[in-house]
Amino acid sequence: MATPLETWVDEAAKLTKPERVVYCDGSEAEYQRMIAEMLRGGDSFTLNEKTYPNCHLHRSSPNDVARTEHLTFICSSEKEEAGPTNNWMDPGAAKHKVGALLDGAMRGRTMYVGVWGRRASLSPGCIRWATWTPCGDTSSTSPRRN
Predict the structure, then answer these.
(1) Contact partners, residue 110, CB within 8 Å, separation at least 6
(2) pTM reported for the whole predicted model
(3) Identity of the highest mean pLDDT range in 10-19, 63-72, 108-117
C-alpha cells in the first residue's frame, strides 16, 4: 500500500510525465552527483573556494515565475483573503489552469523528490513537507542538507 507521499508523487508524475522519478536521500554521494550535474548544465558555477568554500551559484531562467509578480496568485475561497495588494484566483480555476500548464511539463527530465524542514531536522517540532523539482532549478549554497 502506498504512503500518502508516494500517492502524491505518483499523481504529480502522472500529470507532469517525467522520464524518471528520484527520491532524494540527502547523502553526501547524492549531493556530489547533483552538484556535478548542475555544473555540467552550464548555469551553475563554483564560487571562490577560499572565500566561499563549498558554495555554488545557480542562475535561474530570466523568465522564472518568481520574477513575474503579475503571474503570482493567492488562491482562496474569498477574494478578500488575498489582501489588497495580491492577485486572487478561485482555487478551482487555479487548479484547472495550472493542471493544463503542468501537463507534460517534466517530459524528458528527472523529477527529484526531497523532504524539506522548516526547523532543525532533529527538533521534535520540525515541520516537514515534500517538494519536487527538476535538477538545477534550486540553488545550492551549503555542503550538506541535514
Answers:
(1) 18, 19, 20, 21, 22, 134, 135
(2) 0.62
(3) 10-19
First to last CA, the chain: 28
- Residue 26 identity (one-letter amino acid): G
Reduce the DSSP state of residue 115 to 3 states and report it: strand
Report CA dihedral (49, 52, 58, 64) to the nearest 10 degrees: -170
CATH topology of domain 4-134: Phosphoenolpyruvate Carboxykinase; domain 1 (3.40.449)
Q: Which three cell numbers stand for residue 70?
A: 503579475
Q: Which residues contact 9 (CB under 8 A, 6 or more apart)?
A: 21, 23, 111, 113, 130, 132
Sorted by where each begins, the domain ranges of the chain are 4-134
> Where does 41-103 show beta strands of DSSP type E?
44-46, 56-58, 73-75, 87-89
pLDDT of 48: 95
**Mean pLDDT over residues 101-115, rounded?**
90
User: With contact defined as beta carbons under 8 Å apart, do 115 and 128 qualify?
Assistant: yes
Query: Biggest alpha carbon distance in the chain?
Result: 52
